[in-house]
Amino acid sequence: MSFDEEWAQVREDSAMRQDSATRLNSTAASPGGGSGQPNLRTNDPGKAAAVKALETRLQPETQKAGIAADESTNAAETAFTSWATSAGLRSAHEQWAMQVKSLQARLDADKSALQGTRTGFTGFETRLQHQWLLQPPAGGPQGPYAK
């Protein structure tokens, strides 16, 4: 057996022992592939509806709930001024106010993320289209410094 034949056999044996599931240099074996869709998709109408729900329902209702709790808790604190209950109500009210602020911030972040995702997908697709449209012909100049 020549060196080339022996080397080919060693390479073949090595390739057979490798787990192809962890390799990035091959395609999936039939019937392989992931269980997901072949293309990444986004649901723009769904994201727009979620942003609208955040803006028109969730954020305003959260604000109203915070204000309603403020008014009733302030009244209770005043009614129990000379009692130890007043201090407990004040502490609970401070915690409630922090939680309302935290929830509002989370809703704002979710809304921004939904809006940013749409912008990100649209911008990425636009950049990709320009990249493919602006490719030089085969054999033409490559890169900004080509002459």
Automatic annotation (TrEMBL):
This is Uncharacterized protein. Residues 17-29 have a biased composition (Polar residues). Residues 1-46 are annotated as: Disordered. It comes from Streptomyces venezuelae.
